[in-house]
């Protein structure tokens, strides 16, 4: 069972990094002075999380021979995680607040991650089939 979860290690590490940065007390974060930099960071974090989720979900489809819903599952997990982080910030942390523009940046990063995957690799089903064929040929 562990090897089946191991495919999520990069997504998990990214999620832990996002949580650490998101839940760090607001008054203790360094002030950079570049307007909108935090939104760029949100975009990059959720782009990265989505990319790793897609890769892990594809591996799970291959290992477990699951029905492929890679992009949808990756999208839902990344968006739900982003919402959860914002809700926690707004409800439980001093110096932090719930921000709709953070959610928009998270969502934009998630969509961009999916978009780049589609641009580079095309349909996940075709990608999975190619991966399966190359594994069989080896």
TrEMBL record:
It comes from the Bacteria. Residues 34-119 form the VanZ-like domain. Keywords: Membrane, Transmembrane, Transmembrane helix. Signal peptide: none annotated. The chain crosses the membrane at residues 7-28, 40-58, 70-91, 103-121. This is VanZ-like domain-containing protein.
């Amino acid at each position: 069972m562990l090897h089946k979860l191991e495919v999520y290690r990069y997504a998990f590490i990214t999620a832990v990094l996002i949580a650490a940065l998101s839940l760090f007390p607001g008054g203790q974060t360094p002030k950079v002075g570049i307007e909108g930099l935090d939104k760029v960071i949100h975009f990059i974090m959720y782009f990265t999380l989505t990319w790793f989720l897609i890769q892990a979900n594809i591996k799970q489809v291959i290992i477990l021979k699951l029905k492929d819903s890679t992009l949808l599952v990756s999208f839902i997990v990344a968006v739900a995680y982003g919402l959860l982080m914002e809700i926690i910030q707004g409800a439980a942390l001093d110096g932090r607040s719930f921000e709709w523009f953070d959610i928009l940046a998270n969502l934009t990063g998630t969509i961009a991650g999916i978009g780049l995957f589609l641009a580079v690799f095309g349909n996940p089903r075709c990608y999975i089939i190619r991966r399966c064929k190359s594994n069989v040929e080896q």
